[in-house]
Write a structure and sequence with these properties.
By secondary structure, this protein is an alpha/beta fold. Helices cover about 25% and strands about 20% of the residues. The two termini are about 45 Å apart.
């Protein structure tokens, strides 16, 4: 018998696939365009003044940014105003949406996750990686679970060495 015992990394040798949502995090600056700055007394949109602003504003400052259009005050803003802003920002921005930064993050992840092929996870044991360094929204965790559940045999959350079981496909009864 050898005095040396071989250490076997069972996690590395397991058939578990780790799915890291951070790999789908779109890099780039996120900003909010708050239309309240265009409102008279933060209450009313004056069309003539707004159109003059839109014509004169330097929209190139939104180049390569992810932009969320919103209004942070309780005002009635016509839909066309957001649409007009989008026509000016969209040529420069990576993405422009209506909503909050949280909504923007959810949309960005939805678009990124729509690119995966869930069939690649057929009958797989998947761990959706938990802790990370990037702000992955809860939406992304729910969305990847929704996408993989019909295909994966097992879905877990955490790290391969310490997981929380979420789903296990029921065994087929013959």
């Amino acid at each position: 018998m050898s005095s040396e015992t071989e250490i076997i990394n069972r996690v590395a040798n397991s058939p578990i696939i780790t799915f890291d949502l951070e790999e789908y995090y779109p890099q780039g600056e996120r900003i909010v365009y708050d239309i309240k700055e265009n409102l008279f007394q933060e209450m009313i949109l004056r069309e003539k003044d707004f159109r003059a602003f839109v014509k004169e504003h330097d929209w190139s400052q939104y180049r390569d940014k992810y932009v969320a259009l919103t209004c942070s005050v309780d005002a009635i803003v016509p839909t066309w105003a957001y649409m007009l802003l989008a026509t000016k920002i969209e040529p420069y921005a990576r993405r422009v949406i209506f909503g909050s930064l949280d909504t923007l993050e959810s949309i960005l992840f939805q678009e990124a996750l729509a690119q995966i092929n869930p069939h690649d996870f057929q009958d797989a044991k998947v761990v959706i990686k938990g802790c990370g360094n990037l702000p992955v929204p809860s939406f992304a965790y729910v969305e990847i679970t929704r996408l993989l559940r019909p295909y994966a045999s097992t879905i877990m959350y955490g790290e391969p060495c310490s997981t929380v079981p979420l789903y296990k496909r029921p065994k087929k009864i013959s």
